[in-house]
Amino acid sequence: MVECANYDKGENKLMIAQRNDFTYRLLMDAGIKKGLRVLDVGCGSGEVTFLAAEIVGSTGEVIGFDSNETAIAAARDSAVKNQFANTKFIIAEIDKLPQDLGRFDAIVGRRVLMYQPDAVFSIKSLLPYLKTKGLVVFQESDSMGSFKDVDLMPLHTQVQTWIWNTVAKEGGNIHMGMNLYSVFKQAGLTISQIRAEAVLQTLETGSDLAWVVQKMLPRIIKLGVINQKEIEIDTLEERLNSERQNANTVFVRDMAFGIWATIH
């Protein structure tokens, strides 16, 4: 499996591998294969695009789109650097895609529906670009189970609460994972399978919580989730590491949900 071409300095490589392993298996099991033409929704800097590109090979094509120009620029740079000639990246909104994109064998996305004001509408907006019997494959996170370790890992639970509360205050659906089934049903899709796995963190895997808080810090502060002094960002990773060392247990980071369906 391809390593993330856009590895962000400071992010835990094991956490990247963990999330990409779930995504890769989801794409493969759903039926993404060599030669397919795939559309990656809300592609960001291209992590999922490159996973799909590896699967479809040189005879296939993956087009990723996102409204974030900086992310698209990073994705294009990575495609050149890592020689992904079967990828293309464009700036676009879900409901305002170019008419000349053509149709795709599969439409995929990860952690994008949770930020849509109307996920059903977003899915329906994409369907005209899908071939008959084409695949729709999405992965979303869910905060369920993330706050059950408060007795053994209070700091991890507290930090996770900051993260999810920030996403919620920004309008994100922190239970989109559980909502995937109903969203796909309401969009008129025929569901083939839905699955979920706990994202676990241990002493061996390390944790991405301090990294995530560092990346989200301006948003956390702006939304009043907690003030910067209380976060103590300079020592946060050290304190989290110490807690995992002493707790001798696993921490449920969140739940990853995956679903695939077809259109007839």
Structure explained in plain terms:
Helices cover 41% and strands 23% of the residues. The protein is an alpha/beta fold and 264 residues long. α2 (47-56) links the parallel β1 and β2 (61-66).
List descriptors.
264 residues; alpha/beta; seven-stranded mixed sheet; 41% helix; globular
Task: Provide the fold topology.
Elements lengths: L12 H18 L6 E5 L5 H10 L4 E6 L2 H13 L5 E5 L12 E7 L8 H8 L3 E13 L11 H16 L6 H11 L3 E12 L7 H14 L5 H4 L1 H15 L3 E12 L2
Parallel strand pairs: 1-2, 1-4, 2-3, 4-5
Antiparallel strand pairs: 5-7, 6-7
Helix pairs in contact: 1-2, 5-7, 7-9
Describe the structure in brief.
This protein is α/β, with parallel strands linked by helices and 264 residues long. It has helices at residues 13-30, 47-56, 69-81, 119-126, 154-169, 176-186, 209-222, 228-231, 233-247; strands spanning 37-41, 61-66, 87-91, 104-110, 130-142, 190-201, 251-262. Helix content is 41%, strand content 23%.
Tally of DSSP helical segments: 9
Give the overall silhouette: globular
The order of strands across the largest sheet is 3-2-1-4-5-7-6
Mind describing the biggest β-sheet?
7 strands, mixed
Mean pLDDT: 92
Which series of helices and strands comes N to C?
Answer: HEHEHEEHEHHEHHHE
Rg, rounded, reads 19 Å
Helix and strand content put the structural class at: alpha/beta
- Span between termini: 31 Å
Give the % helix. Answer: 40-55%
- Strand residues, percent: 15-25%
> How many beta-strand segments?
7
Q: Would you identify the regions where 5 or more consecutive residues have pLDDT less than 50?
A: 1-7
